[in-house]
From TrEMBL:
<keyword id="KW-0732">Signal</keyword>
<dbReference type="GO" id="GO:0016139">
    <property type="term" value="P:glycoside catabolic process"/>
</dbReference>
<comment type="similarity">
    <text>Belongs to the glycosyl hydrolase 29 family.</text>
</comment>
<keyword id="KW-0378">Hydrolase</keyword>
<dbReference type="GO" id="GO:0006004">
    <property type="term" value="P:fucose metabolic process"/>
</dbReference>
<dbReference type="GO" id="GO:0005764">
    <property type="term" value="C:lysosome"/>
</dbReference>
<dbReference type="InterPro" id="IPR057739">
    <property type="entry name" value="Glyco_hydro_29_N"/>
</dbReference>
<dbReference type="InterPro" id="IPR016286">
    <property type="entry name" value="FUC_metazoa-typ"/>
</dbReference>
<dbReference type="Pfam" id="PF01120">
    <property type="entry name" value="Alpha_L_fucos"/>
</dbReference>
<dbReference type="InterPro" id="IPR000933">
    <property type="entry name" value="Glyco_hydro_29"/>
</dbReference>
<protein>
    <recommendedName>
        <fullName>alpha-L-fucosidase</fullName>
        <ecNumber>3.2.1.51</ecNumber>
    </recommendedName>
</protein>
<feature type="domain" description="Glycoside hydrolase family 29 N-terminal">
    <location>
        <begin position="42"/>
        <end position="306"/>
    </location>
</feature>
<dbReference type="InterPro" id="IPR017853">
    <property type="entry name" value="GH"/>
</dbReference>
<dbReference type="GO" id="GO:0004560">
    <property type="term" value="F:alpha-L-fucosidase activity"/>
</dbReference>
<comment type="function">
    <text>Alpha-L-fucosidase is responsible for hydrolyzing the alpha-1,6-linked fucose joined to the reducing-end N-acetylglucosamine of the carbohydrate moieties of glycoproteins.</text>
</comment>
<keyword id="KW-0326">Glycosidase</keyword>
Amino acid sequence: MKTTNLALPSKAQLSWQNLDLGVFCHFGINTFCDQEWGEGTDSPELFNPTELDAAQWVKLAKDAGFKYFVLTAKHHDGFCLWPTATTDYSVKSSPWKNGKGDVVRECAEACKKEGIHFGLYLSPWDRHEPCYEDAEAYDDFYSEQLTELLTQYGPIMEVWFDGAGSEGREYNWERMIGIVKKYQPDAMIFNMGQPTIRWVGNEEGVAPYPCWNTESAAKISMFSDEKVNWLPGTPEWLPAECDVPIRKLHWFWHPNDEESLRSLDELMHIYYNSVGHGTNLLLNLSPDDRGLIPEIDAERLLEFGAEIKRRFSNSLGSISGTGTEIELSLENETTIDHIVLKEDIAFGERVRKFEVSVFIDGEWKIVYEGSAIGHRYIKQIPSNKSTKLKLVVSESVEIPLIKEFSCYCANSLE
Ligand code: FUL
């Protein structure tokens, strides 16, 4: 099959896109200071979770149906959750486990045990480290931190480079990317240097529609309209990830903040607009100062996972096919209120325009007209009884390869 003009995903990107759901985990010195952005001046003495249990965090993610887990090994405050040799500003200077603990290791082991992928966030911006002022010295420092993380904790599936605070700053990305490629060649690289996945451009968990997999310009951070200056060799295929906290506006845990927990409806809205638009969803959980995910957050996550399953694990009918017209016949007349479409993106994103019709009262009625299908497109349609549906692709680049055309009665409020 000739696909010369189409951007194609790498094998690693394809596997990553198939994961769909990840848990982001913000935990660190901020957790103990009721703050989001520490200045790097808080004493390590404050870091003292009394019941830290990374197994609880990861098992929860797994039980809710999430497939990967990304931990903030170091946030902007510079405090390291592993006993790095690069600085004393870390768990080793804290009272937790008498300075002998390693949160990164505990998470890595829990992920291994639960069989879910592990990723790490390492903030380039470091408000504690004195050598941050000296670009070259800091590149050495950061390279060493990256090397430690990528060589001591087993397979790393994603490296999250946050642009916040680094607006206008140049790091030696060639060097950093070289380190990732050397030690974790299959790891996804988030949004900086030579990324393999990109930021969706907001922290609402909402991807635009269409959200093509080939967007070549993304913003560096929430705090700048600056475009990211990516290295040559950045792949054309660049799927997006939607990162969003389960507690509105808060990435770290704060006391008495329960009311900012998103409702199930809000989470489902996020799901339709992220996974339903073909991106991955990286939903943030914040362990509290005990070192546990608070019970209400844990329950909400489980409810969310259960609701996704309830709506989308029993299709009424499903078909795959090649070409511009595909019909999906159902065994019995059934109420339909959702459609799910997927292209075989291993061969690129081909569909540019399509419509879906439902056979109602003896005639075909168009219920939806769209543009992108890509990895996945979920759409709620007006609820109708029918025995068959039709997908017509009116514009495409090369022959459409539809991996899945399915319908559901999810009976949702979305
Ligand atoms: C932002 C950071 O400033 C937030 O604190 C958080 O880490 C979020 C994921 O990215 O840019």
